[in-house]
From TrEMBL:
The lineage of its organism: Eukaryota, Sar, Stramenopiles, Oomycota, Peronosporomycetes. It comes from the Eukaryota. Residues 460-481 are annotated as: Disordered. It comes from Phytophthora fragariae. Residues 460-474 have a biased composition (Basic and acidic residues). This is Uncharacterized protein.
Length: 481
């Protein structure tokens, strides 16, 4: 019995294939197909009952699917009249509501019911470790596309009971699932009691977009997460648009009412990225350490920007930034100390154009927040302490605080094609380097689908930026007494 697997766009997922054996009805066919493709990535996570079966291409176009108990023996006799089997996977991109940057690469998941409510539940189950504990599936906002999400007037999220039948059919048309920014309870500085929004104050829901709340709003969403806080604007119209107050423990009621538990800190990945090199490495390090201590939602952005900032200062100090590599690699560390640090590119294509003209001895990272797969490209030294051997390599760097990522050969191929346009870089060995904060990254991180020879796992230890560490590396000269 001939069949052809297709995605929700009707595009083939491979050549037509054949199933053998007596198959009575659609249910039998689904089970046999699933069993025969147990290792197929296309059917990974897809229950047999979710597969939609059509007797031929014509009925597929008309969207007339066979029922579960329909006889099937007379169909699929020849390749030209193969059964069409649609795999009902939905593509979506998880985005941080504060930074408006992706939290993960776009993924696809099978859904039995193509509605917003079911997508929220699936996204929450898939990425629960990325969410603040108090964020529920119903808190997630779903947008039909990047274009809708990025509208200047503010995109309109889909309603809970909306169908997503026509959305998320491919990576390029992925739905956007936003993990929301939330706030803690505002208190009166004198009485230490929860307050409503006084007419003499202006309170903003979001520091970047400035969504002004109405004068009679009641601030009653405290304690969901310590990721963000309300921005309070006094009568003189002055407001700190960059920093926010944190509390030490969002689960302790007293911490909302006593100012000794409050700390003022930059808390927005968006703000940090805009500040760029204006922030000193010491300040950036302090922000990262505080973000880590409270489990802030912008921790990943703070860690990435800390690396960029540290590399920028390395050449002036003649102190390379060291990325430690697990023992099983041929090298034990990578050292970055380049003359130029550049951030450029306003779109995905313009970022690729920058790579095509990249100079040697340059550390480049994309100014475009949504550039896929990598966070920096640089020439650097790969060094083995045991053999003394070192190589100058070109590193494709992906910075992450997560425990797993997926290696994507097609993205690597595109990067190589652009780098090949630069004669001085064309002959350099290229290595994909995952950089994380865990010194035991070799045992705690999984890079799925990566060939070992092309990928390094490494640790950027922020301790090397501490003053005491630098003093140990460069002790004072001996006294002449």
């Amino acid at each position: 019995m001939w069949f052809e697997l297709v995605d929700r766009n009707g595009e083939p997922l491979g050549p037509a294939d054949k199933l053998h054996g007596p198959l009575g009805d659609v249910a039998d066919f689904r089970r046999a197909l699933k069993d025969s493709r147990s290792d197929s990535a296309d059917l990974d996570g897809v229950e047999a009952s979710l597969l939609k079966v059509y007797k031929d291409r014509k009925t597929y176009i008309s969207r007339i699917a066979l029922a579960t108990n329909d006889p099937i023996a007379r169909f699929g006799k020849q390749m030209e009249t193969a059964l069409i089997v649609e795999v009902p996977k939905v593509w979506f991109q998880l985005v941080d509501g504060g930074t408006r940057r992706p939290l993960e690469d776009a993924v696809c998941l099978p859904l039995a019911n193509l509605r917003v409510e079911k997508l929220r539940e699936a996204a929450k189950a898939k990425f629960s470790e990325l969410f603040p504990k108090t964020v529920k599936a119903s808190d997630l906002k779903v947008y039909e596309s990047w274009e809708e999400y990025n509208k200047r007037t503010g995109g309109i999220p889909l309603l809970t009971d909306s169908s997503i039948e026509n959305f998320g059919k491919s990576r390029e048309t992925a739905l956007i699932v936003e993990v929301p920014k939330v706030w803690f309870q505002l208190v009166d500085g004198g009485t230490r009691r929860a307050v409503t929004v006084y007419k003499s104050m202006q309170v903003y829901k979001d520091q970047v977009e400035g969504g002004l709340l109405s004068a009679d709003s009641i601030v009653n969403e405290h304690g969901k997460t310590s990721r963000s806080a309300l921005i309070l604007e006094g009568p003189k119209g002055q407001v700190d648009r960059i920093r926010r107050h944190y509390i030490t423990d969002c689960n302790q009621e007293a911490h909302y009412c006593e100012s000794k538990w409050w700390k003022l800190s930059v808390d927005s990945g968006y703000a940090l990225s805009k500040l760029g090199r204006i922030i000193s490495t010491e300040t950036q390090l302090d922000i990262y350490k505080y973000a880590k201590s409270i489990g802030a939602g912008f921790l990943g952005t703070a860690y990435e920007l800390l690396l960029h900032n540290a590399v920028h200062g390395a050449f002036a100090k003649s102190e390379p930034i060291v990325l430690k590599i697990p023992q099983r690699s041929e090298f034990d560390r990578i050292e970055i100390c380049v003359q130029h640090v550049i951030s450029s590119g306003e779109s995905e294509q313009s970022c690729y154009d920058c790579l095509a003209t990249l100079d040697k001895n340059t550390y480049w990272y994309p100014a475009y927040s949504f550039f896929p797969f990598i966070d920096a490209v640089t020439t650097c030294k790969a060094i083995s302490s045991t053999s003394g051997h070192s190589d100058t390599i070109l590193a494709y760097i992906q910075v992450t605080i997560q425990k797993h990522k997926k290696f994507k050969p097609d993205r690597l191929k595109r990067l190589n094609e652009e780098i090949d346009k630069t004669p001085q870089l064309k002959g350099l060995r290229r290595v994909f380097v995952v950089v994380g904060p865990d010194s035991d990254i070799g045992n705690t991180f999984t890079l799925r689908d990566a060939p070992d020879q092309d990928a390094f796992l490494s640790c950027f230890d922020r301790d090397q930026l501490e003053p005491q560490h630098q003093e140990e590396q460069h002790p004072p000269p001996p006294s002449e007494e």
